[in-house]
Here is the input.
Amino acid sequence: MSKKVISDVFLEIANAIESGEFGKKVKIGLTTLGSEHGVENLVNGAYIAKSNLFEIVLIGPKVDTDLEVVEVNDEKEMHVKMEELLDSGYIDACVTMHYNFPIGVSTVGRVITPAKGKEMILATTTGTSATNRIEAMVRNAIYGVSTAKSIGIKTPKVGILNVDGARQVEKCLKELQANGYDIDFAESIRADGGCVMRGNDLLVGAPDVMVTDTLSGNIFMKVFSSFTTGGDYEAHGFGYGPGVGENYDRRVLILSRASGSPVVANAIKYAYDIVKGDITNISKNEFKNAKTAKFDDIISSLTKKEAKTNVEEVKMPDKEVVTRQISGIDIMDLEEAVSELWRQGVYAESGMGCTGPIVLVNDAKGDIAVETLIKAGYTAK
Here is the structure.
């Protein structure tokens, strides 16, 4: 047994005694349907990740394994069962694919940068933190800091990737800092320095947390994880990470359908890290501190200039079960599209799928909802 494994075991024992949970192991779920590389690829990842520190629960079809298996027949049933196991506390976190998070929740990826072999947090990689781009990236910074702290980085250095809106994000974050929010900024490796990062900084992992818009973050995740394999097999890194939001408490971590066994294994370990680091309470505390530093006022100053005058107030119809997904709607039009359906008496909710924004409606009203959105110019589908 290696010195690191021995130290991990003793640390786990000490933590268990201190918390009064001696003998209670963390349980990490792994759904096993949906991979482009098959069920075996995911199960192999679970075996690579096996540890004395946690137990792994497979959620999927029956397989020949000594791991615990909760049997399901399809992906829809699989995610229902996953949520049931999470909400009941039977599992502490779950690694899965193709999961729809609500608006306001995005996933925080973890990569190994090629130039220096350094770990770096990518905030964020899937989901939508807010419909306003700048607000979304400011939130991404807080999500990234929360995640970094949960995996043991006490004072994470934050960099903002030089994408559209980076300077506005920098202004907002530095205003939060001036108001008392505890955030440290990284320095670019380039001669002119600063916390706005270049592509070079991505390669070397200049910051602990790289803040970017989600679509760019998603691309970087794919490049970092599969640049040595040709793109169809993600072999490096820890996956797209946990969904983090201001008041979100499900510990769901995302993989790509192209993620290979090594990434699956690392994602399971990542899940253990954020459970033991208590990401839920850390993120709540980060937002509490940010709000004390006038977060809401700063965000309001961004969004009030976009506010429309004389907007008709639309009453929400009675809630219904929504399982029909309508895609092809621009993120900036998402809430207006929902309001248009409400105006027509169709209950709808906004969400984010793997391919972008979605509107969710009841199956029985799916066709009329699509017709309404096409007529109003929100989608061509």
